[in-house]
From TrEMBL:
<dbReference type="Pfam" id="PF08622">
    <property type="entry name" value="Svf1"/>
</dbReference>
<dbReference type="InterPro" id="IPR013931">
    <property type="entry name" value="Svf1-like_N"/>
</dbReference>
<comment type="similarity">
    <text>Belongs to the SVF1 family.</text>
</comment>
<feature type="domain" description="Svf1-like C-terminal">
    <location>
        <begin position="193"/>
        <end position="352"/>
    </location>
</feature>
<feature type="domain" description="Svf1-like N-terminal">
    <location>
        <begin position="38"/>
        <end position="190"/>
    </location>
</feature>
<dbReference type="Pfam" id="PF17187">
    <property type="entry name" value="Svf1_C"/>
</dbReference>
<dbReference type="InterPro" id="IPR051385">
    <property type="entry name" value="Ceramide-binding_SVF1"/>
</dbReference>
<protein>
    <submittedName>
        <fullName>Cell survival pathways protein</fullName>
    </submittedName>
</protein>
<keyword id="KW-0963">Cytoplasm</keyword>
<dbReference type="InterPro" id="IPR033394">
    <property type="entry name" value="Svf1-like_C"/>
</dbReference>
Length: 353
């Protein structure tokens, strides 16, 4: 017997509000939702020198006490640095207005004057400091929350995205400090349930290409929710948020079995997006990416504290995350106009059970 699913887009339609709600810097809030909640703030950044930067702060209350994880990854010119660390929850703090958060080794500070986010990460062998300046606006679907089983504060997911921002800062490793600049995608995600209760697998693509950008998040719900796909995507053209839609598909064209865990990992993915632009024009978008450059493969259990690792191992078997940075192509048709752009894109897929 299937359980009910209350999609944010359907709730918005019933209330007569836009499917896409535009967000500003003032709308970024840490919720620290109760129950078995996970909340994260993640930056996917394409650097002007052709490299990539990934920074994440994740807060989880699945275990007996909150678990905080900080991660930074830098890839440029043959240099690849990846570091993640578990932090004491005693050092985790949010500001009075809940717009900023910090923990030992990482702070994400809301800067309304910028407007954007100031980020400072200090890990064992890698330090990063940059300003993420929001370009145009962010968005969420409807009022932001999709509910599972029933509408209550402990059965929802929420994704708030800023699909394009400019960054400037520095990165230090091996005794060398480099100036960095580029453009990136920021997503604030709240999952108030255990991950395996919400999704079997999920994937995300984000491409920054000059004044244009495309981002798409997709995950498949478990059998108890009829394997319904939940998606959201955005299109930026000429530094303006042009379209947001939930009518998306993500198709694994070809796959390859990972012998370590048996998962069918994609080697080529095709996406489609359909809907209306924010000013009411029909649009259609297609994107494709061939996955050749694996940045990181993360055995999630291996990175977690022992008690939480055993708990998750009991709930679901082999959570893995794969991150790629490869060439992608986008063809967007807005009204009668066709726009083509491409470049290096982040692709991330996660298998949860």
């Amino acid at each position: 017997m299937s359980s009910p699913l209350y999609l944010a887009c359907d709730l918005a339609e019933k209330k007569g509000i836009p499917i896409a709600s535009q967000l500003g810097c003032q709308d970024l809030k840490w919720t620290l939702a109760g129950g078995s909640a996970t909340e994260s703030a993640t930056f996917y950044i394409k650097l002007d020198d052709g490299g990539a930067l990934f920074v994440q702060l994740a807060h989880s209350s699945i275990g007996l006490s909150p678990t905080i994880q900080t991660t930074a990854q830098y890839f440029s010119g043959g240099i690849h640095k990846f570091e993640t660390a578990n932090r004491s929850s005693r050092t985790f703090k949010v500001s009075a207005d809940k717009s900023s958060a910090s923990v030992e080794g990482l702070s994400i500070t809301n800067n309304p004057e910028n407007p954007g986010l100031d980020v400072k990460a200090t890990l064992k062998s890698l330090s990063v400091e940059f300003k993420f300046s929001i370009i145009d606006s962010g968005f969420q679907i409807g009022e932001g929350k999709t509910f599972f089983r029933e509408i209550n504060p402990t059965n929802f997911i929420c994704h708030q995205s800023f699909p394009k921002g400019s960054i400037k800062g520095t990165i230090t490793f091996d005794g060398e400090t480099r100036q960095i600049s580029g453009h990136g995608y920021y997503i604030h995600a709240v999952l108030s349930m255990k991950p395996h209760e919400v999704a079997t697998k999920c994937n995300l693509i984000t491409l920054q290409s000059g004044d244009n950008a495309l981002s798409l998040l997709h995950f498949d719900t478990p059998k108890c929710f009829n394997n319904v796909p939940v998606t959201q995507s955005s299109l930026i053209l000429n530094n303006k948020l042009v379209a947001v839609t939930v009518k998306n598909t993500a198709r694994y064209v070809t796959t390859k079995v990972d012998p370590e865990n048996g998962y069918e990992v994609p080697t080529e993915v095709q996406y489609t997006m359909d809907g209306d632009t924010l000013d009411g024009q029909p649009f259609h978008c297609e994107a494709s990416i061939k996955l050749n450059n694996l940045l990181t493969k993360v055995d999630v259990l291996r990175e977690l504290p022992y008690i939480l690792r055993k708990l998750i191992q009991y709930l679901f078997t082999k959570p893995y995350v794969y991150q790629y940075f490869d060439d992608a192509e986008v063809v967007a048709t807005v009204g009668d106009e066709q726009v083509t752009f491409g470049g290096k894109a982040f692709f991330e897929c996660s298998f949860l059970n």
